[in-house]
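Weekly puzzle thread! Below is a chain. First person to post its structure in token form gets bragging rights.
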Amino acid sequence: MQFPREKIEKIFDEIFALAERGAGFIEPNPKVGAILIFENGEKIAAFHEKFGEPHAEILAIEKAEKFFMKKKLPPEKIAAKFRDATLFVNLEPCAHRGKTPSCARKIIEKKIGKVFIAARDVNLKAAGGAEILRENGVAVFFADAEIKKRARKLNEIFYFFHEQKMPFCAIKMALSLDGKISKKNKRTQISNSQSQKFSHFLRLVFDAILIGAHTAKIDDPNLSARNFAEKKFEKSANKNPHRIIFDGNFSLKNLTNLQIFRDENFTICVSKKNLKSARSKFPSQNVAGFSVKNGEFQIAEILQFFAEKKINSILVEGGARTAEIFVRQKIAQKFYFFIAPKNLGEKNSVDFFAPNFLNSLNFKIEKTQFFGGDALFSGDFLW
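Winning reply:
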């Protein structure tokens, strides 16, 4: 079967939408969708649904086998179907056996004739599937530059972590119309319940959530994905993210009963001079000491620490001072800014960023979504 460029693009449109359905349930794995197309036009689609369970390619193959068996096709005809089939997938089939079997080996076992791939796998443990397929007689084709770009954007966290060897960082903030994030020294609810539910979905997507000590004191946040405590939520392999707290001066030493310290799934980051004091209050594995320069942590040093702990991504949720450090040091890659239809006023309110600092930023809004009366603007910082 021949596939003109227009048809390939439409197939990958469907694959990208399929792959997105795994978000929040497959991390730290990448999002993957696969479509098997047979000579008579029959089509079987699948996506990676849950961490530790079969990948999209294997699911598609298994679904196709069940489909043909239900039609009572004999084994030799099913085998012939696979030989004439073409598999489309947004990520290079994995070459290794990890928690699940090698997708490349399964494709070879079924003698699938052709494979179209949108983008290479850059995880060194899994890469090389295309070469294995070719060595075993499978015709392998890579999509054009535009489709490849979209495939990499779909899995931007995955690609950033494996290529840069650092966690992908995003900033999430809720703002009033007049650019405030809260009342001073007072827990302030800016966004509505729909926005909060999406925020909790993001907590499933990111490996860790980061806040500053002041936010911890004032808000005493749970930092869980509790709004996804439903059937769908139960599918997630990492239900609640790791909690990271920036507290250079160890100002939380007498607040060990805060919700963020409720179990061992946290790391409090303090200055090296406060490391001994912090370890007298918390288990050593939950405390890390870092350099402070001009009153600020050096974020690259901290990210290297968490990269070694296999934290792929960090969502910075506040407060303004903490978020500003990530931006000033040009560390954040992405933003999620919720704008709520309310004003907090100038009196006793906290600015998002100082106006002159905000005006110096270079960023690109890629997507606008609406949650009731709230608007969410998301996109990329351009450094």
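Puzzle host: Confirmed. Bonus trivia for everyone else. The chain is about 35% helix and 25% strand.
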